[in-house]
Amino acid sequence: MNMREQLQAALQTLQPEHLEVLDESHMHSRGLETHYKVVLVAPVFVGLGAVKRHQRVYACLGELMGQVHALALHTYTGEEWLAQGAAPASPTCSGASKQA
Description:
Oligomer: single chain
Strand order of the largest sheet: 1-2-3
Radius of gyration: 14 Å
Number of domains: 1
Distance between the termini: 30 Å
């Protein structure tokens, strides 16, 4: 199971209504399977602010967090997701060692 699949499996414990785990490592200079974007819509986020939502995600991922260099989290309730419709695009890497 690759890292994206491991992240996806671990996040199932939050019973998501919508889940995307995107490997964005190709946009960065740190190698393969290091940079991820997670779009997660779950009822468990109702009434929670961004910090608490992220803490819930980190708790689910546990030791996997030590194997990931960067994790962009976009967490929504069902109502927020219906209003928003999509997560923002990720910026391109501005690291000095990024090769064009």
